Amino acid sequence: MSRRKGDWVRTYMGVNFYPLDPRPEDIRIEDIAHALSHIARYNGHTNQHISVGQHSILVCEELKERGYCTDVQLIGLLHDASEAYICDIPRPIKPYLPDYLVIEENIQNTIYKKYLGRLPSEVEKEIVKKSDDEALLFEAENFVRFNDWKWKDSEITVKYRNEPPYAIKRRFLYLFNQLAEEVRVRRVPYARKHD
Fold it and tell me: pTM for the full model?
């Protein structure tokens, strides 16, 4: 058995996940959905619980509402999936944690390769980033008290649903299965019939 870099974190599904040495075979969508449905946005400083899973669903559904393709919707759903393994670090802190950013990107890229079959393009990243920022603004408008830091109004159009973690997990998995199947079917080459 080969040595792995760093130490492991035991996941909900019982996997020993190595954040410094992520491998596709150690990533389970059930672990991602479960953890993200419980991890609080804004370090918990909201007037009701908002999970990273709810945020991811909001981004995904907004991308669908805006007419983006299945690949972009799946990228939106998974854009914070690495946080299932290394937590959600608030934006003001991230720039001061360069090692964290490298670890996060490595895990995130492993997740994209496993479930999308590739890394997102720069254009896809920019589209998802815009929707991610819109979701942040929407959450700040509705769930952050004393919000005087927003830079514009949110353009989120989908209906937000406040649900408990088990319902968020179930909805996350439903969306993932639907989108991943569409992406998979599109990538399978069509068999040619020979007469």
Answer: 0.91
